């Protein structure tokens, strides 16, 4: 914000059949805070109700019926699709593997990204954990940490 | 985790009269993921019910009736107390101003840290925002981003 060239790469968040409605509202707040261009809802239509949230005045919502339609839209915008998931080839988010505008695809809590969801991803990032215990992070928490890194690196 | 000396500084999260009970459960999950030693609940007693959460097996809960009792406990452990708040002298969390074991004090959403809460803090960090809009982050999201930075810097 204060220093350096502003590359103006855009970020998107893609949410596919999210299980808990109230997560979308919190996700929208973080998306606004970290300069996300659009929150893309795929599948179930009832997400659209969240478009009117107070904190989302700078955030656009877009809906697609299928993952492949969402993917086509993002590819037309020359966007990488980054899955947030612990996979064999996932890169730690701290290493900032972002090269251009990026859409972040988040899986459902518990089950993570499905095979179908992984197929549309260009690469994967994971959030390193520390300490004795491990825990599945809340989906909004995971998204927020990733967006915070993307915003800090690419937009500053 | 993979490289370097392990300094084993500890982290704590201090929650003072948090407004929304369900935030404590999500906070406990992030605290577990990022190696927090203890979740310290100050004030209202009913927080203790969360001690039995499934994801918190590696996390201890501790209760104090007042902020000054919590502060004394932390000072005995040679712990810095870091307020998570946008104040005039707050440092961006990305700059990693952490020097030793640190307890993170979080304010209520909306009103932030009170004057009384600020008094027990040794320093403050804030989470930079990006883009056109600004939003108050969910308290668990804010805590998770800060713990992620602390864990990545001090424990790796």
Automatic annotation (TrEMBL), chains A, B:
Biological process, per Gene Ontology: methylation; RNA processing
Record's keyword terms, sorted: Methyltransferase, Transferase
Domain tRNA/rRNA methyltransferase SpoU type: 12-148
Aminoacyl-tRNA synthetase recorded as keyword: no
InterPro entries tied to this protein: Alpha/beta_knot_MTases, rRNA_Methyltransferase, SpoU_MeTrfase, tRNA_m1G_MTases_N
Keyword Acyltransferase belongs to the record: no
GO MF, any single term: RNA methyltransferase activity
Pfam families in UniProt: SpoU_methylase
SUPFAM superfamilies linked: alpha/beta knot
PANTHER family to which the protein is assigned, alphabetical: OBP33PEP LIKE PROTEIN (PTHR43191:SF7), RRNA METHYLTRANSFERASE 3 (PTHR43191)
Name the UniProt record assigns to this protein: Family tRNA rRNA methyltransferase
Organism from which the protein derives: Olea europaea subsp. europaea
């Amino acid at each position: 914000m204060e220093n350096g060239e502003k590359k103006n790469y855009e970020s998107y968040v893609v949410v596919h059949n999210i299980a808990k409605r109230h997560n979308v509202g919190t996700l929208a707040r973080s998306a606004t805070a970290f300069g996300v261009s659009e929150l893309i809802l795929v599948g179930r239509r009832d997400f659209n109700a969240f478009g009117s949230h107070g904190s989302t005045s700078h955030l656009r919502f877009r809906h697609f019926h299928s993952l492949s339609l969402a993917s086509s839209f993002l590819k037309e915008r020359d966007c990488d699709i980054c899955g947030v998931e612990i996979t064999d080839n996932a890169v730690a988010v701290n290493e900032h593997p972002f090269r251009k505008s990026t859409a972040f695809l988040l899986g459902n809590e518990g089950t993570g990204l499905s095979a179908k969801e992984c197929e549309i991803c260009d690469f994967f990032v994971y959030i390193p954990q520390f300490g004795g215990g491990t825990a599945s992070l809340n989906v909004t928490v995971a998204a927020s940490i990733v967006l915070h890194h993307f915003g800090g690196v690419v937009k500053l």
